[in-house]
Amino acid sequence: MSASVRAALIAVGDELLSGSQSDTNSSYLARELEALGIAVLSIEIVGDDEPDIAAAVLRASARAELVLVGGGLGPTLDDVTRHGIAAAFGRELHEDAQALAALRAWFELRRVPMSDTNRRQALFPVGARILPNRAGTAPAFLLEHEGRAVAALPGPPRELRVVWAEELVPWLRARGWLGAPIDERRFFLFGIPESTFAERAGAWMAREAEPRMGCTVRDGTLTAVLRARANSPESLAALERRVAEFRARFSAEVYSEHEWDMEHALARELFARNVTISLAESCTGGLAQGLLTRVPGISRVFTQGFVTYADEAKRSALGVPSELLRAHGAVSREVAEAMALGAARVSGAELALAITGIAGPDGGTSERPVGLVWFASALRGRVQSVERRFPPSDRDSIRRWAARMALFLGWKRVCTAD
Amino acid sequence: MSASVRAALIAVGDELLSGSQSDTNSSYLARELEALGIAVLSIEIVGDDEPDIAAAVLRASARAELVLVGGGLGPTLDDVTRHGIAAAFGRELHEDAQALAALRAWFELRRVPMSDTNRRQALFPVGARILPNRAGTAPAFLLEHEGRAVAALPGPPRELRVVWAEELVPWLRARGWLGAPIDERRFFLFGIPESTFAERAGAWMAREAEPRMGCTVRDGTLTAVLRARANSPESLAALERRVAEFRARFSAEVYSEHEWDMEHALARELFARNVTISLAESCTGGLAQGLLTRVPGISRVFTQGFVTYADEAKRSALGVPSELLRAHGAVSREVAEAMALGAARVSGAELALAITGIAGPDGGTSERPVGLVWFASALRGRVQSVERRFPPSDRDSIRRWAARMALFLGWKRVCTAD
Known about the structure:
Two copies of one chain form a homodimer.
Chain A: E1 6-12, H1 14-17, H2 25-35, E2 39-46, H3 50-63, E3 66-70, H4 81-88, E4 93-95, H5 97-109, E5 123-125, E6 129-131, E7 140-145, E8 148-153, H6 157-174, E9 184-190, H7 194-201, E10 212-218, E11 221-227, H8 233-249, E12 254-256, H9 262-273, E13 277-281, H10 287-292, E14 304-308, H11 311-318, H12 322-328, H13 333-347, E15 351-357, E16 372-379, E17 382-389, H14 395-416
Parallel strand pairs in A: 1-2, 1-3, 3-8, 13-14, 13-15
Antiparallel strand pairs in A: 4-5, 6-7, 7-8, 9-11, 9-12, 10-11, 15-16, 16-17
Helix pairs in contact in A: 3-4, 9-14
């Protein structure tokens, strides 16, 4: 076993270089590699161009033992990754009879006629090891060359993940290339600005600190990563001490040590305590429920939700009194609370969350600006509410943040049974 | 004006290299640059490490006139982009008094105490031009060095976009660096597999074809890009001819020539024809409504939607008869149609869309496998329905695809007024 194997990632596609699509495969592979103890040295993006791909493969294989190339294995004529890798190492392409047969079988099974262009998916550089792709038509492959390994993986994320997990990881293990991962811990915090976090974290974030700590912010969520400097007993002990200190210092903000997705943290508590839930959304228009129902098996605790965009819908679907709407406006504590109580009553859920706000770009006033959102939660008839003013920005950001805020408030109420 | 200016992008962040976050800034910048006629040669991702950043900046400035570095300008100690760029060109960092005053004013305006760590955001390489950041606390900067320009932009996408549009684009224009963009056209298609598309497109996709054509697939949507080879009259005429041929050949599948987002295509038709809409969702749990309500001003045509996850909710909220649910099951033509008619009746909308399916991972049977989804639409009382079997994959993919499919069906019905 060699702990010194390093990886370089290459993502192929004009659509990535022109920005019409963003590269999610590399972050997936980087995450996986890191968990397996293989450091990622670089990520590079190149277009659908044979010489560019060949040059990037040579650059990457000059510095890393393992090169993963994602994308450009499809059936269309702009898919030239196989050509680029072959060119990099001076190999020919040949059609593999077994791969062609598997390709035909894939189409027959699905009763879809196989296009002639699909045949190019049975082309491989001479000497390549074919990696079957259970999830799609593009078989992947692996080429070893002078102690380096270059793997070509399909671009569709689902297919890339299947080939990675089912083919490449076992190969890396057999090859003895999986190192000892550097231990790290993650904390996911909601509702704390980055500068406040930095001040409260203090010297923990210094560049030379042990363990090393980094943080990032997205959709109102701050992710803090603590990473040991080495696999030594001292480094690991320092990591454990810092983890305990971190938990104590940020107990009010940490909602998970496992995952960014708030909906999973909430669902776990709902499942554990057998609490049923409903949601009533105005400005978020179904986004919070859309998040919650990502969780498999959520039907155990979620049966019904409400998207009440207009005042009349708040009245008819949730029984919000017209007087409240008239007196306080739809974006108010009173209406948020009535929405939550109404959602609980109509659905029969123990916990109901309500969101009503101004997502913009229009509809704001000086008193009720774009970014103002009222949240309410009703737990077994007891209602709480809170107002938040999101810095005026784009509609999407405000809505995403508000949906996650509602789930966070629900999580807090369930955890504290308050 | 020089049409030969090229750009290289660098995204900075351990979170990008470790995969805990993916780099969306580079795709944004690539899109913008391309539209301004500046070709993007490469995109590279490096960690929060001063020497790595310095090396990447030198590599990038060796091949491109314009280098854009995104991220690593925050207030925390792991933000070292300013140090890396200064090191690359052998410059010192100094604290800018005016930037510090602006920083203090920003915090005062928001009545948030300014942390000491925020002071480092007033540090700049000697000789740098400061680019104000209206959207956040991290000022950006631009450094010219031997005919090259290196700009450091804040990592949060909203801030990066503001500084890009308000500061950097005007600077590029004044510098005469905006070239003539190569003309391209996009088509967005739904419901056509990539291999079928490739076969029907035929030689249009050949690597040497004029115009050049590429395609990508995501969430059931195929994006085809046709790009002229040059700015010559011949190339542009060839592009126009191909655009006309493309429209004719794929008229049944193209839903937009402007944007990927199906909800905008649908909303545009609803607005133009003054058609009101409602949605009833089961397996998608609010996702389709969440998409539709992304559109600003959607309240003109959307007042209310339904998330009826359990059978009982379909009965009580939409009036789906218990007998139908018992006889056919929740995932059936009969129930989808009853959901659509119920949503139209309760909401008063002219058009109602319904989605009921099995998103998995559990709940599938051999007769009704995971991935089976029934869609129905009711337009002024006339109902249509269709079944789709999505290849069994992950829950998220099935749900996202189903939500977009429902919007596509709605778009088709409104367009054909059928």
